[in-house]
Specification:
globular, alpha/beta, 3 domains, Rossmann fold, 22 strands, six-stranded mixed β-sheet, 18 helices, 26% strand
């Protein structure tokens, strides 16, 4: 859907510069958005995409440059001013209150009459949803909705506030293929009604399918803006990666060293969530040495709790957990670390790193008793920092120094830090939960290569992912979980994306 070249600009950024201590996040960025256009922004993690979107949304004021909205110069100091000018941002991680209704979430923070007429507002939201194909029951609570329905609420929320310019940040990251297709139709409906969209995605196929123009950011600078018909995914990937040879970074499966030995086997595992409700129901799973087992499922169907059970974080209620031939009764985190289990958690910032500690200290979180870094009960800071510098270079972790706080790193560099820490120990089993979520092509290829290399050396890997492209690229065997139950499993060669997508939503069982 190419936008005619004569269409007016609804948004212009001229020379936008935004700096933080020790880093220039946006360096004289120029960007334009036409009326009725989908303009995608591509870039590595840490390229400045999020900062630029936060400038547009009024969360960060720029140090230099100017913003024009519908031809008029504006200066945002808070998000309310951005919303007032018709800009709405739909975040990757939903900003919804789970125990409130759809209507309550949508009108929260908007001016209302002294006495709120919920019947009238419900009807307004219902009509707005019908207009854009965003069907959702206004009276349902958020916790009763699927992930796809929750995203519709987020979009309705900005449309209800009068947004004509929408920023969609990784909108398909947590959706099934069917939900993604529904979202594409919603985007088409919005474009037909003269909305304009800034689209952020790392999925090249959808970028090339949806976009009118594509801007590539790198290290805070614009590397180029392209009309979709005059470029291709290969060229864009090369530009994102700094013109390195694409073939060197694309993943290829190495020769696999298979012992066929069963590393992990769970039978009829049941577990409860934090509120005491059953979240896993008689789950069976088997992973062998030199094998990647992929676990597919829509977010919130028990895969996170299964990873916690396997890693010793969450207790089992019942069932059998066998690890390297030994039945474990009540394994703890320390137990599993000592047994050679590595864990890349889904929430990398919350559970994967200690954000207030340095990168150097984060490398030692699983190995804090290593005598290599201690002498006479004191930590040898020089050895620790030297080790960190080696690992940063080996795993391409981009930061000014090993001494900076890990929490200020970009998502991709945080993930590489976790991977470096976990894979640098003597591992026997690795749980990788959503390892490439929200990562750019470069970081994705690097992380996938490390995991595949570890598999080729005999490591058993459980890969938990909602990204079906990743699932089929990486896995040898595929399990599908829905509503806390395993609804099927099969060798990758016997599976197809449509079948797995249906199983993830509980529509089909193998």
């Amino acid at each position: 859907m190419q936008t005619p070249p004569h269409q007016p600009f609804v948004l212009e950024l001229r020379g936008i510069t935004k700096a933080f201590p020790g880093i220039i996040a946006n360096d004289h960025v120029d960007f334009t958005l036409k009326q009725g256009e989908i303009h995608t922004i591509l870039g590595e993690n840490g390229a400045g995409k999020s900062t630029l979107m936060n400038v547009i949304a009024g969360l960060y004021p720029p140090e230099q440059g100017e913003i024009l909205v519908f031809g008029k110069k504006v200066h945002f100091t808070n998000p309310r001013q951005s919303i007032k000018h018709g800009i709405g941002m739909v975040h990757q991680h939903f900003m919804l209150i789970r125990n409130h209704t759809v209507t309550e979430n949508i009108i929260l923070g908007t001016p209302q009459r002294f006495k709120l007429d919920f019947r009238r507002v419900n009807e307004e939201i219902r009509r707005l949803g019908e207009k854009y194909g965003l069907t959702v029951d206004p009276q349902k609570k958020i916790q009763e909705l699927s992930v796809g329905e929750q995203q519709r609420v987020e979009i309705l929320k900005v449309l209800y506030r009068g947004a004509k310019i929408l920023i969609l940040d990784e909108p398909t990251a947590v959706l099934t293929p069917q939900e993604s297709e529904a979202l594409y139709q919603i985007i088409e409906n919005m474009i037909q009604k003269d909305h304009s969209i800034i689209f952020i995605s790392h999925k090249m196929k959808e970028v090339m399918s949806l976009s009118d123009r594509i801007t590539v950011l790198g290290r805070g600078k614009v590397l180029g803006t392209f009309v979709k018909e005059k470029t291709d995914a290969q060229e864009l990937a090369k530009i994102m990666m700094g013109n390195e040879e694409i073939k060197e970074l694309l993943v290829s499966s190495p020769i696999v060293h298979r012992t066929q030995e069963v590393v992990l086997q769970v039978e009829k595992i049941c577990a409860n969530d934090d509120r005491g409700y059953q979240v896993l129901s008689e789950v069976d799973l088997e992973v062998r040495a030199g094998q990647i087992v992929g676990l597919a499922g829509v977010s919130g169907n028990g895969q996170a709790q299964l990873a916690e059970v396997l890693s010793g974080i969450r207790p089992m209620v019942s069932g059998t957990y066998t690890y390297w031939g030994e039945k474990l009764k009540a394994p703890t985190v320390s137990d599993m670390i000592a047994r050679g289990l590595g864990y890349i958690p889904e929430d990398r910032k919350r559970y994967g790193i200690a954000g207030s500690l340095s990168i150097s200290h984060n490398f030692l979180l699983r190995d804090h008793k290593n005598p290599q870094f201690y002498g006479q009960q004191f930590l040898n800071i020089n050895k620790m920092n030297q080790y960190a510098r080696i690992k940063m270079q080996e795993f391409d972790i981009r930061a000014a120094s090993e001494k900076i706080q890990a929490g200020v790193l970009s998502g991709g560099n945080i993930q590489k830090t976790i991977l470096a820490r976990e894979s640098s120990r003597a591992l026997k089993f690795l749980i990788a939960s959503q390892p490439i979520r929200g990562l750019d092509v470069h970081a994705t290829a690097f992380i996938q290569k490390v995991i595949l290399q570890a598999k080729s050396e005999g490591l058993a890997v459980l890969l938990i992912t909602e990204d079906l492209d990743e699932l089929f690229l990486m896995s040898d065997h595929i399990y599908v979980i829905c509503d806390g139950k395993m609804v099927g499993h099969m060798p990758k060669e016997e599976a197809n994306i449509e079948q797995i997508g249906l199983m993830m939503t509980g529509v089909a069982v193998s």
